[in-house]
Amino acid sequence: MNTCQMCEQPNEIGGILCTGCTKATVVRLESLPALHRGLAPFLQPVGGIGAGRSGKGGPAPLPVNEEILDLRGPGGLVGAAERWLDDVRRDRGHAAITPSGGVEARLRAAVDGLLSEMAWIALSWPSAGYFAKDIRDLVNSVRSIIAPVPAVEAGQRVGNCPAVVQPAGTLCGAVLRLAPGEKALRCQWCGTAYPPYVWAQLKVWIDEDAKARDAA
Questions:
Q1: Which of 128, 148, 168 is the endpoint of a domain?
Q2: Stretch among 41-45, 93-97, 118-122 having the lowest mean pLDDT
Q3: DSSP conformational letter for 59
Q4: Do 126 and 189 belong together in one domain?
Q5: CA-CA distance, 67 to 81, in Å (whole number)?
Q6: Distance CA 208, CA 202 (A)
Q7: Is 158 helix (H, G, I), strand (E, B) or coil?
Q8: For residue 53, is it within any domain?
Q9: Does some domain include residue 54?
Q10: Which domain holds residue 193?
């Protein structure tokens, strides 16, 4: 029996990543654009205000948090996603893609490219474990800065489950509640789990579904 390169537990389905780690990596990839946008309000350090005067006599420029600037810049989240996509395409014998557009568009394109290759990555790519761990660490690093967890009290109604139930492909829609003592949201109808690191994206999905229902 194979061992998952991510969690190092027995992998009953074979391949490089187990089902759980594959799903977790997909969720983390999908959250990258939202996390990128979530960093924007943190560009200015807490309490950062113009101090003193500039050389032209006006207020000194506001300070910028260089760590946030790096994560949101070409070498940050988008750079990491594009490098992994380049590695995947190279190992699959595909031509490299020249990035185009702004940083957000490039990040979305790189994420979409990686998501389209996840089946092959999980089953066959020797570097899948390193890739999954790097994406996990990247997401955790951003979360440690912006803490994207919606205010959810134990037992409080969170919203309707946005999971797509297979094979019918229909929206679950069951009510999600965080029971006392639980560390993750779990849909009691379809069984989909939503650990804390995906709660920011979960809120986006719930809001989008609610808007779609209102417009119908």
A1: 148
A2: 41-45
A3: B
A4: no
A5: 18
A6: 10
A7: strand
A8: no
A9: no
A10: 149-216
Alpha-carbon Rg of the chain, whole angstroms? 20
Please give the pLDDT value at position 45: 55
Q: Which two tokens stand for residue 105?
A: 């568009």
In angstroms, the CA 92 to CA 100 distance is 22
Residue 132 — φ and ψ, nearest 5°?
-60, -40
The answer for residues whose C-beta is within 8 angstroms of residue 153's C-beta and 6 or more apart is: 178
Contact 96, 113 (CB under 8 A): no
Return all residues near 61 (Cβ < 8 A) that are at least 6 apart. 50, 54
Helix 128-146 / helix 77-91 crossing angle, nearest 10 deg: 170
Q: Which two tokens stand for residue 10?
A: 């027995």
What six digits make up the tokens of 215? 């417009």
Pair (165, 140) in one structural domain: no
Q: How confident is the model at residue 106 (pLDDT cuts 50, 70, 90)?
A: very high
Instruction: Give dist(CA 93, CA 52) in Å, integer.
Output: 56
pLDDT at position 127 over 90: yes
